[in-house]
Design a protein that fits this description.
The complex is a heterodimer of chains A (114) and B (113). Chain A is mainly beta. In chain A, strands 2, 4, 5, 6, 9, 10 and 11 form a seven-stranded mixed sheet that branches. In chain A, strands 1-3-8-7 form a four-stranded antiparallel sheet, with no helix packed on it. Chain A is globular and about 40 Å long. The N and C termini of chain A lie far apart (37 Å). Chain B has 113 residues and is mainly β. Chain B has no helices and eleven strands. Chain B is globular and about 40 Å long. Chain B starts with a strand and ends with a strand. The relative contact order of chain B is 0.34. The chains are: A mainly beta (114), B mainly beta (113). Chains A and B meet through strand 5 of A and strand 5 and strand 10 of B.
Chain lengths: 114, 113
């Protein structure tokens, strides 16, 4: 089966600029997650969708980050404006809605803010 | 809030020896505990998981133990091989697809030849 797709794989921007990331989950996966992984740390959940509804966005910096999952399939994560501390790998993951709990991760987008 | 602590942060073992990584969690409602392996520059991949209705699970050279009373769980890798070198993350969740998973900070495991 095809895995979770993300693009772009790498992005370099200057602070105060905007950036958007795209994720296409595994077909049929109702739950989609966006994580921020800073170098040397574990993934930190930013937002979790169940179909097109938000389940948890308690750790999303809403003054600058936004995410949407229109039609319950693809998702985009946007940062506007970016700060230096946003430099990280942004991982998208998806899982089935049923009793399977395993999350399948995409390859990630490495963001560098200069 | 929920928290998962993981240690050690780095671990170096001789090839063929065993490696043990330990985690503790704060949310007593957690009942699903996955372990992910992340090789350099790659995505995290699930290697083993355990649910709270069992105390131990084994898959070839990898085993996980869970002590719900003490709220800690451990990953055991026996007969380590060079390809085991990676960063390992533990995590805890309330165990439904709508539950968020809290990750530990990771353990960098190095296998010495």
């Amino acid at each position: 089966e095809a895995g979770v797709a993300q693009s772009p794989r790498y992005k370099i921007i200057e602070k105060r600029q905007s950036v958007a990331f795209w994720c296409n989950p595994i077909s049929g996966h109702a739950t989609l997650y966006w994580y921020q992984q800073i170098l040397g740390q574990g993934p930190k959940l930013l937002i979790q969708f169940q179909n097109n509804g938000v389940v948890d966005d308690s750790q999303l910096p809403k003054d600058r980050f936004s995410a949407e999952r229109l039609k319950g399939v693809d998702s985009t994560l946007k940062i506007q404006p970016a700060k230096l501390e946003d430099s990280a790998v942004y991982l998208c993951a998806s899982s089935f809605k049923s009793d399977s709990y395993e999350q399948y991760f995409g390859p990630g987008t490495r963001l560098t803010v200069t | 809030g929920e928290n998962v602590e993981q240690h050690p942060s780095t671990l170096s073992v001789q090839e063929g020896d065993s490696a043990v990584i330990k985690c503790t969690y704060s949310d007593s409602a957690s009942n699903y505990f996955p372990w992910y392996k992340q090789e350099l520059g790659k995505r995290p991949q699930l290697i083993i998981d355990i649910r709270s209705n069992v105390g131990e699970k084994k898959d070839q050279r990898i085993a996980v133990t869970l002590n719900k009373t003490a709220k800690h769980f451990s990953l055991h890798i026996t007969e380590t091989q060079p390809e085991d070198s990676a960063v390992y993350f533990c995590a805890a969740s309330r165990g439904s697809s709508a539950s968020k998973i809290i990750f530990g900070s990771g353990t960098r495991l190095s296998i010495r030849p």
